[in-house]
Design goal:
Layout (H helix, E strand, L loop, with lengths): L23 H16 L19 H10 L1
Length: 69
Amino acid sequence: MTKTYEVICEGVVQRLVLVEATNAAEAAQAARQEFSALTGAEKEGIAILDIYSEPVTLKEIKDVQEDME
């Protein structure tokens, strides 16, 4: 005879989420909401690993541009 089990699973998934916001706190909240909608994860369990606003100049790109000049 088989039984039914409730099993809670946890995994690690990372995803870049682009949001529009007036400040970093609002952006983090919007990103959690979007990530939750995309993955089904609970908002309370979502960590913000990095946050920055545009424009962003990547060091690698800047170095290449300077070398070309």
